[in-house]
Amino acid sequence: MSDKPAAPVARLTMITLGVSNMRSSIAFYEALGFVRKFQATGETVAFFETGGTAIGLFPWNQLAQDVTLPERPRPQAFRGMTLAWNCRSPEEVDTVLDFAVSKGASLLKPAHKTDYGGYSGYFADPDNHPWEVVVAPGIEVGEDRRIHLPD
Question: What pTM value is reported for the model?
Fold first, then answer.
């Protein structure tokens, strides 16, 4: 008989982004079409459904304090992560990029054919969190808005 507890089931449930201005960031993500939930939190924290995980927005300085990392200097360079908006076609990639820019995103990299046979481009939200908009071979986007990966 083992005294070790069973391993928990691995899952990613929330991606929390540090933001400079809660009001404008909430408006940006709503404008992209993400549905805000649990609005009783006001502008203290904001939660958005994404179809699988959720996005949380939290003031940058408070998030840094919570994870016990310095909030300054704020990195202007690549932070080592991207968010992704997987699409069903190259045309959808173009549409999403244009839409995001029309809602206040900045275009980081125009859509282009990738070396792995996909099609992708990048935009940044108002706090420069990079988003890849992509259609990738072998990754299906279902009617449920979730990605379905092959085994």
Answer: 0.87
